[in-house]
């Protein structure tokens, strides 16, 4: 259904470092950066993804406010170990724990997820739907 999603961040450089570190265990990395020179304003954007396609974007500048309530973004993980590594990397990068890795059987019997609150108050999740 979705091709891509973007969120606004307060500190672009800190968020760039945070997401680069946190998404690496899931196999995602920086794909495309849009600079102020390219936008003709102070706006900066960075798309993360795999296989050369940016699916998740962060952005700052040009009057882009950070929402006070944050958003929820769930990243797909191939294994339970990747979910665990995401959670550990996020906490090490400054995120707050919002749910340790584990089965969430109320969603379905194989739903293995972990939750953190990022530097901007966004609720991030890594989830694996495969049994392990």
From TrEMBL:
<feature type="domain" description="VOC">
    <location>
        <begin position="1"/>
        <end position="129"/>
    </location>
</feature>
<dbReference type="Pfam" id="PF00903">
    <property type="entry name" value="Glyoxalase"/>
</dbReference>
<dbReference type="InterPro" id="IPR037523">
    <property type="entry name" value="VOC_core"/>
</dbReference>
<dbReference type="InterPro" id="IPR004360">
    <property type="entry name" value="Glyas_Fos-R_dOase_dom"/>
</dbReference>
<dbReference type="InterPro" id="IPR029068">
    <property type="entry name" value="Glyas_Bleomycin-R_OHBP_Dase"/>
</dbReference>
<protein>
    <submittedName>
        <fullName>VOC family protein</fullName>
    </submittedName>
</protein>
């Amino acid at each position: 259904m979705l091709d891509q999603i973007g969120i606004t961040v307060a500190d672009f450089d800190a968020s760039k470092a945070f997401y680069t570190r946190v998404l690496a265990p899931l196999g995602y990395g920086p794909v495309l950066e849009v600079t102020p020179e390219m936008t003709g304003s102070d706006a900066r954007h960075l798309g993360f993804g795999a296989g050369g396609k940016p699916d998740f974007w962060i952005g700052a500048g040009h009057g882009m406010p950070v929402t006070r309530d944050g958003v929820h973004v769930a990243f797909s993980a191939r294994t339970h170990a990747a979910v665990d590594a995401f959670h550990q990397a996020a906490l090490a990068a400054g995120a707050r724990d919002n749910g340790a890795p584990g089965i969430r059987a109320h969603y379905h019997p194989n739903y293995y997820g972990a939750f953190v609150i990022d530097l901007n108050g966004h609720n991030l999740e890594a989830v694996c739907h495969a049994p392990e």
